[in-house]
Specification:
- With about 70 residues, this protein is an all-alpha fold.
- The chain has a domain at about 35-69.
- It has one helix and no strands.
- The protein is rod-shaped, with a radius of gyration of 30 Å.
């Protein structure tokens, strides 16, 4: 019979390390998804604020023209 290259304890240790790595990869994937969602939300908020600023600027300009008349 051929001698085993690894002991049962070594095999179990490697399997546990792989399982822990898979859990870490899943956690990292979840965090990346959360970060993407946050960045998308920030981008949408920036767009909305820019539109609000443009509206305020236009209203101020219209108000200034009305006062000059």
């Amino acid at each position: 019979m051929k001698k085993q290259r690894f002991t049962e304890e070594q095999i179990i240790a490697v399997l546990k390390e792989q399982e822990a790595g898979a859990k870490a990869a899943k956690a990292l994937e979840d965090e990346n998804a959360k970060l993407k969602k946050l960045l998308d939300c920030r981008a949408n908020t920036a767009k909305a604020l820019r539109m609000l600023l443009d509206t305020i600027t236009a209203l101020q300009s219209a108000n200034d023209h009305a006062l000059d008349s």
